[in-house]
Specification:
Blueprint (H helix, E strand, L loop, with lengths): L1 H20 L2 H12 L7 H4 L8 H12 L8 H16 L5
Heme C binds next to helix 2, helix 3, helix 4 and helix 5.
Length: 95
Amino acid sequence: MRRLILLSALLGIATGVSPAIASETNVGENLHQQQCLSCHDQTVYTRPRHHVTNLNTLTQQVKRCEVPATAKWTNEEVTSVVNYLNSQFYHFPTP
Ligand code: HEC
């Protein structure tokens, strides 16, 4: 019985660790999924003549949209979402 508890404790730790080592893109994807799809879906990113034309304007737009989304993200979280959007939709060259 004791072993079982120990084992589940270890497993608990292992699963607790995995989000931290998940790729940054996954973090951005989750944040975006949870907080960014209430006003528009993903088609705004790929529509013809979309506004965002480089990584800077993408970052600005994410920050702008973060306000009504009441996301209150850290800079790292904004970067994760920018990287997610860029890898999935925009494909701007990264420095
Ligand atoms: C309160 C409503 C609202 C929420 C919530 C929202 N957006 Fe937006 N978003 C808009 C509007 C309005 C536009 C501009 C549409 C237009 O200009 O036709 C836009 C446009 C964008 C664009 C630019 C698309 C282009 O033209 O290239 C990006 C990128 C974007 N949003 C990202 C996000 C992200 C990331 C989140 C989550 C933090 C988010 N949005 C949440 C309203 C919202």
